[in-house]
Amino acid sequence: ELTSDVMSSGIIVTGGSSKIPGLGQMITRETGLAAKISEKGDESVVRGLGVIMGSKELKHLAFSIRESAFD
27 vs 18, 32, 50, 69, CA distance in Å? Predict the structure, then answer.
């Protein structure tokens, strides 16, 4: 399922790496897939965590990830 999403939608570059000049073009050249650079990639982790913490259905994920990182 993930593979088909990437093949149809391309790769979305987020995080601090999204600030690297020419990274999207290099990814497209090397993979043949469309690469989209997030407008505020450096904020993506914080924004995503905010969505998770604001959701009753997803909030448990934030704590399960933290706990499993130290196992």
Answer: 11, 8, 29, 29
